[in-house]
Amino acid sequence: MTGKPYRLPETAAKGSRIDRSKQISFSFDGTRMTGFAGDTVASAVLASGRKVMGRSFKYHRPRGLIGLGSEEMNALIGVGEGGRKEPNLRATQVELYDGLTATSQNRWPSLDFDVGIINNKFSRFLPGGFYYKTFMWPRSFWEKVYEPFIRNAAGLGEAAGEHDPDTYEQMHVHVDVLVVGGGVSGIAAAHAAAASGKRVMLADENPVLGGVADISAGDIDGISQTDWVAARQSEFEKSGNCHVLTRTTVVGHYHHNYVLAAERVCDHDPDLLARGAPRHRLWKIRAGQVIVASGALERPIAFANNDRPGIMMASAARAMVERYAISPGMNGVIFTNNDDGYLTALKLHEAGVAVSRIIDVRKDVPTAFADTARKAGLNVHTGAAIAGVETASGGKQITAVKIAPYSVGRGRVVNEERVDCDFVAVSGGYNPVVHLWCHNGGKLRFDDDIQSFRPDRHGDPITVVGSANGSFDLKTCVEEGFASGETAAKALGGKAAKPVKKPMVKAHSAGPIQPIWFAPATGKYNEGNKHFIDFQNDVTAADLELAQREGYESVEHTKRYTTLGMATDQGKTSNINGLGVISDATGKRIPEIGTTTFRPPYTPYSFGAIAGTKTGELFLPVRRTAIFDWHKKQGATWEPVGQWRRAYCYPQAGEGKQDAINREILAVREKVGLLDASTLGKIEIKGPDAAKLLDLVYTNMFSTLKVGKARYGLMMSEMGFLMDDGVTVRLGEDHYLMHTTSGGADNIVAWLEEWLQTEWTSLKVFVTSVTEQWSQFAIAGPQARAVLDKLDGDIDLSPEAFEFMSYREGTLAGYPVRVFRISFSGELSYEIATPSGYGRGLWDVLMQAGKSEGMTAYGTEALHVLRAEKGFIVIGDETDGTVTPHDVGMSWAVSKKKSDFIGKRSLEQAFLASQGRKQLVGLLTTDPQDVLPDGAYAVESVKSAPPMKMIGHVTSSYFSPTLQRSIAMALIEGGQSKMGETVSFPLEGGKTVEAVISSPVFLDAEGKRQNV
Amino acid sequence: MSEAVYTSPLAHLEDTRDAANLSISISEISDRGMIDLRGEAGSVKFRQAAKAALGIELPLKPRSTAVKGDLTVLWLSIDQWLVCCPRDKADGLIGKLRKNLGEIHSLAVDVTDARAIIRLEGDNVREVLMKGSSIDFTLPDYKAGLARRLVFAEIAALAHIVADKPCTIDIYVFRSYADYTWKWIEATAKPAATIGLFSKQSG
After folding, report:
1. Which of A96, A202, A285, B159 could serve as A190's disulfide partner, Cβ 3.0–4.6 Å?
2. DSSP state of A869
3. Are the CB atoms for A237 and A244 separated by under 8 Å?
4. B192 contacts A276? CB cut-off 8 A
5. Do A172 and B38 touch (CB under 8 A)?
């Protein structure tokens, strides 16, 4: 198989898509090949004389090209190398470029010799439903034996194993009219709609507009269809209101005419990639009106071994000649049940390709097309069907077909004729591409004239035209398209700004089709014969019949049992043929059987397009405080808090994380530390009813708070469970500043707004989030005041002038600041806020000022240990959405005086007020070096194996460098009355840790350290 | 007394900013002061007091803006406005607002440092924005003077169309997202990724 025996000379066929002056070099399975600019991988490989392009899914049978475009189900290839490899591309759609690397799939070790072909020999043991029947028992084999086997054998191409170096993007667009498909119907629709001045988008999956205009008969407006298409395209480009997208597959139609379309921007041209264009672009289109002109797909005919390389669709054979000047072989036969096969026969004949026979299922073929063929001297053999094929080279090529008389209802025949040939062009009629129509609930009806389903009703502003609508003659295609464009524009209030003339069409009409769902084989019944229905999933007519015999009456069940119409193919070519076989087997008419569901995407598209720009650094928005870069420079490790990245700890050279955490904690306890607390939620609350609002949302009282003072508050949901906490400061009589948890900041603003807007509409309060306005730092430790005293400022920091839990505003080292004397560490502590733009400046000043005092930046882990040593809770650690203030021992913060607040009523419910609830306690492990894992379960009694009765769990657990021992907090059933008791925590690996229940306050219970 | 040092939220990108190689020009605006003003639009007293302080009527139509001199007021919601002025005038203006508003139910807060502003200029601006937003920036009424909040990429943002020729749009995002926003725009505004949506092609 060398040379280029199948590329026709220019004199015989020009090849409308190729440029013979530009040779392109590429490789297929490691073999260097050449093609011309404009070739696809399919045409170029075929030109080299190679017919086998892949192996089939289940039986690993050699497979060649069958289709014309995106419906191709055999010639699936992997393209590209390394991180750029993309599997399962249809060779018919992959445009050639210099240096392209393609590999065939589903074969091992090579395409020519494949070990998996053994499945073909054993195929009688691999019937429909094989997996279900075989792998049911023994049960224990599933995980270790069957599943790995199936996983290994299943699937098509291999995904890239490396990071994809290319970029992708998404684009939103709003259009008045979206036309799907750039064949003549779609073009006519866009032509009419654009004339109204409305914004029209026309999307087509091929690189060239026109659909099958170049391989169909008939003229429009007195010129060839191709010329007419070119003229319209040039108008669109100049119009300014019709945007044409080529290489763009509309993959899904959703509610409200939301449509997804995948554009392959660079796949045909690596230079574009190199210049920085996104490889793929996913269009998110909102359309006022959608016009589907997605065309029709030719269907195969099920005859014995109809999957052999060299057997292809008649339209594909015709296009190979017209577009790429490639003959599918040296000597072919046509097998058809409609007039389309004759067009192919004539096209091949004109190009000098031998066509030995036109085999037509129909007895009488009185149509113009048949007459032309006969006049051209072609041998038309009516009332016959292909009964089998003869092959050579292990099924990799065909040598002859067997032809037997055919008529509906007639049984098997024995008289057959053998005709030599090396390719077969098959036309089983056309199926409208109704996928998009059906994605969002469009209904179908079966049409006996075309022996296929065609669109019926739809609830959306969507219309379908041309062959997608089952209208196969050119005149109707163009008329429907044009009318739909006019109607769509009119529905949107468009007026014909520049009216255009309705196109006039001249074409012969085609004769009727005769359905054939199964061409019987001759000879020994079915021996070695397979009638393929679904090529991609290796589903045969026999599999479908078996499924019927086994009782899979619903077509949806048959689909799942046999895998008919699954995977990437989504039944593009197999659907109707499968239904036809089921119909024959059950005696039910096709419309009674119904179709399976058409799901998006119409064809697969890349994960890159789905991710778009959201990759790498842009995968997730990361919020940075004003001090982020400082943290980074200090080598901080990070803790994600919502979308924030907070410094977890700052390991110095030679320090592990735990060393760093311990050092930071001790610095705060003994000297002074600085924490970036900018992520804390900050909400300004103002209005005559501000105090009232706070009294309603917090469990404790805020109306009594004095101006300039701060108070810690607990917030519950209506269910009585803790949802947030923080310190609120009274800035003025009617003006408060609320601090929330970092993670709760956005939710709490929304929570307050919701209550104000929906329930307490009479309250006069405004709330505005100022979280991002302020950088805020905690300066904590015995030396905190000494450090601040060094700085110029107008705030008297003396303990008498500035008491614990109060607030001052002023300047510090020239920075405008709000200073809160509050403490989450139990040390002398100030939280200092300055506008974010000044945050970094002030941070640097504070670090510098504290140098001689041993100023140490501390991260979130040190913060957590410091607060745990003091027994302070953290929402989300000690609480999990089912914990009340009473449970965490904070009944003191639940007002008994207030008549109402959110959650008050729930707290009074019996099960929340009951005694046996899990309550927050401290834990001191018997071995002080044992640090309990977070979440460890306390059990009533330790047994050798689960189940054991669980009585609580660890909520926070740390090693305290201050106390030189492990400390933990836990929620334990009735814990507050179990002080001093020992509880057991059986851990993974058999170890059990014992701990004594204690108060959760491990350090300075009197609070002396913070109040100095 | 030392001088307070201001740091832009995009300072860390100074070395890598390569705005020249984009299909639009992008720049940071850091000298703008911002005041979040809340009040009852239905209250004549409130509107009059606000006008007395600002020298300009508050825009009441959704998504509209009012401009006078170096002052721009953006409508944010039925009871919220963003008052933009030179950074060094924000303090004074807040004082003036609070004084004029007095006991009238309202809230004026300095949010100058809460947001980062990125200015996008050029013919391709609308297209670049639509790579990150489902808002149709090509609508006929999306002209200079319009301001609206939107989901941009994956965050909350505010877009203000400042001028039409050349198209100039200011994108306001919360300060912590400045880095993310800048990098998103850089990623989607590469010249090779230009689409030319509904542009007339010669030929």
Report:
1. A202
2. H
3. yes
4. yes
5. no
